[in-house]
Amino acid sequence: MSTLSIPQFVPPASDDAEQLRKAFSGWGTNEGLIISILSHRSSAHRREIRKAYAVLYGEDLLKALDKELSRDFEKIVLLWVLDHAERDAVLAYDSARRWGPGDRALIEIACARSSDELFAARRAYHARYKRSLEEDVAAHAKGDFRKLLVLLLTAYRYEGPEVNLTLAKSEAKLLHEKIEDKTYADEEIIRVLTTRSKAQLEATFNAYNNAFGHPINKDLKSDPKDHFLSALRAITKCITSPEKYFEKAIRLAINKVGTDEGAVARIIATRAEVDLKQIKELYHKRNSVPLVHAIKKDTTGDYEDFLVALIGEESA
């Protein structure tokens, strides 16, 4: 469910391209004009603007923006202009190359997208970087994380609603046994999390709760300093309740000592046309303050203005 505010009348893509060209002309860049156009255009229309700009001026709009903008504002605008699959490819590339145990971008791409969206991101990665995503992840992640992430990113999960309740109960028992034994990186845990459909995993986690009296994530919190356990918790939450996962992720990014601007930009850019409305509602309920107010308090300048435009002002 998109929060994007689309005007009732959207001008032709060529008109928007001309206006953006004007924003780049003269003595200084007109950031306000850039924000007013790009933050109020759908993904399909942004794609047409980019095509029109290339036809009119013989240059990729992304390159023009890259020359004119800087810092966090540049990053969020460039992410926003990219197609969804291209955006995921860029985020995955950055994450793979600087990967650390606390990084969550690859898990989000693997678990919060549909199978077709993940496949499209892998294809975009291959086209853009001339090698596979799993190749780069395998080169930079180590040990158990490498095994987990490569299997997550190469999965093509069944997307239908059908579940096998008998299987859910048996795999809930299996997961419980492995977690009790503290063999968190066991191949059976990884197999279940990386191959089962989201509906089947939800049934398994429900069976876990019913059989053992508490959610699986409670048992995965046994060692809060264990990064692998934290990754497993992120996977289970991202698969079953992506809006709750992203509410917490953006809350933690904002509340850090020194805001994690990369995480904020990634979450807003990737969820604005998906489920940002629900994320905003959850954030307000959880924190007693609207997300847009938290963003305004924590960011400044053109970067703040662009994020606020994507999130949408609160009506109350």
UniProtKB/TrEMBL annotation:
Signal peptide: none annotated. Gene3D superfamilies: Annexin (1.10.220.10). One of its GO terms (cellular component) is cytoplasm. GO terms for molecular function: calcium ion binding; calcium-dependent phospholipid binding; phosphatidylserine binding. It comes from the Eukaryota. Transmembrane segments: none annotated. Ca(2+) 3 binds at residue 298. One of its GO terms (biological process) is response to cold. Keywords: Annexin, Calcium, Calcium/phospholipid-binding, Metal-binding, Repeat. SUPFAM superfamilies: Annexin (SSF47874). InterPro entries: Annexin, Annexin_repeat, Annexin_repeat_CS, Annexin_sf, AnnexinD_plant. Ca(2+) 1 binds at residues 24, 26, 28, 68, 254, 256, 258, 299, 304. A pair of annexin repeats may form one binding site for calcium and phospholipid. Belongs to the annexin family. PANTHER family: ANNEXIN (PTHR10502), ANNEXIN D1 (PTHR10502:SF104). This is Annexin. It comes from Platanthera zijinensis. The gene is ANN1.
